[in-house]
């Protein structure tokens, strides 16, 4: 029984070694077509909720920027050719909305501060145009579209969840490490501008949020 156990262990060790060697030596970074990127970052936002008024006051609202680490997600890239790829992406973020009240009689402005939080979920697809270099650096540009749904974390009178088309464009750079067994690992820096067809707004108002994301992440190229 002990001899059989030793043989079984030996076979498993050899199998793991062979698989590891095949995985690490299957090709250089640019030979591998599938890329998986986990990322996090922040998002600057230009988003007004519009205004609501009565005979005494006018209330306006606006979104605050998404703090770093509160914007995160996953990108799945497939390189069709050396220079062209496609990407599917999924992200989630959370930010805060604040209100400002103007006294129409006294002409005085009062900030009410943070009023509610909302969660945004984005998913979409992009085209990637890249230029791999011998040093492992891969600069790229990208453009695409998707869908964004924004939902207040708590029910807010006069403000409902909303969905809209999310257009984005930007670029970045990837770097794949050199050395035995390393071409499948890399890091990625990305910056993209977003234009969203619809966003949260007071009743009777419309909003088209805009923003710029800055993210960093780790890349795995399994094959």
What's the layout of helices and strands?
Layout: H1 2-24, E1 34-46, E2 48-53, E3 57-63, E4 66-79, E5 84-103, E6 108-130, E7 137-152, E8 162-176, E9 185-196, E10 210-220
Antiparallel strand pairs: 1-4, 1-10, 2-3, 3-5, 4-5, 5-6, 6-7, 7-8, 8-9, 9-10
Describe this structure in words.
By secondary structure, the chain is mainly beta. It has a single domain, classed as Porin, CATH 2.40.160.20. The protein contains one helix and ten strands, in the order αββββββββββ. The chain has an eight-stranded antiparallel beta barrel. The two termini are 39 Å apart. 27% of the residues are buried. Mean pLDDT is 82; it is low at 15-26.
Q: What keyword list fits this structure?
A:
single chain, 223 residues, Porin, eight-stranded antiparallel beta barrel
Shape: elongated
Give the topology string: H per helix, E per strand.
Answer: HEEEEEEEEEE
Question: Which class of secondary structure composition applies to the elements?
Answer: mainly beta
Number of helices: 1
User: What's the arrangement of strands in the largest beta sheet?
Assistant: 1-4-5-6-7-8-9-10
Q: Averaging pLDDT over every residue, what do you get?
A: 82
| First-last Cα distance | 39 Å
Low-confidence stretches: 15-26
CATH hierarchy class name? Mainly Beta
By CATH, the architecture is named Beta Barrel
The whole-angstrom Rg is 24 Å
Profile the largest sheet: 8 strands, antiparallel, barrel
CATH topology: Porin
What's the number of extended β-strand segments? 10
User: What is the share of helical residues?
Assistant: 10-25%
Q: How many domains would you count in the coordinates? A: 1
């Amino acid at each position: 029984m002990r001899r059989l156990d030793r043989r079984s262990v030996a076979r498993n060790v050899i199998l793991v070694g062979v698989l590891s060697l095949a995985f690490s030596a299957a090709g250089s970074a640019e030979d591998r077509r599938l890329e998986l990127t986990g990322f996090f970052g922040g998002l600057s936002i230009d988003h007004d909720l519009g205004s609501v008024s009565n005979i005494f006051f006018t209330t306006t609202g606006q979104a605050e920027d998404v703090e770093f680490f509160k914007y995160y997600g996953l990108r799945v890239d497939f390189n069709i050719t050396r220079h062209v790829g496609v990407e599917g992406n999924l992200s989630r973020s959370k930010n805060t909305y604040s209100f400002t009240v103007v006294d129409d009689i006294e002409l005085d402005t009062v900030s009410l501060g943070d009023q509610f939080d909302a969660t945004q979920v984005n998913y979409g697809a992009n085209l990637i145009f890249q230029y791999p270099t011998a040093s492992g650096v891969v600069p790229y540009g990208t453009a695409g579209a998707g869908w964004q749904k924004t939902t207040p974390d708590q029910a807010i009178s006069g403000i409902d969840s909303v969905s809209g088309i999310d257009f984005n464009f930007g670029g970045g750079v990837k770097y794949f490490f050199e050395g035995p067994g390393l071409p499948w690992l890399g890091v990625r820096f990305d910056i993209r501008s977003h234009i969203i067809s619809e966003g949260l707004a007071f009743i009777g108002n419309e909003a088209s949020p805009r923003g710029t994301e800055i993210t960093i992440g780790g890349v795995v190229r399994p094959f």
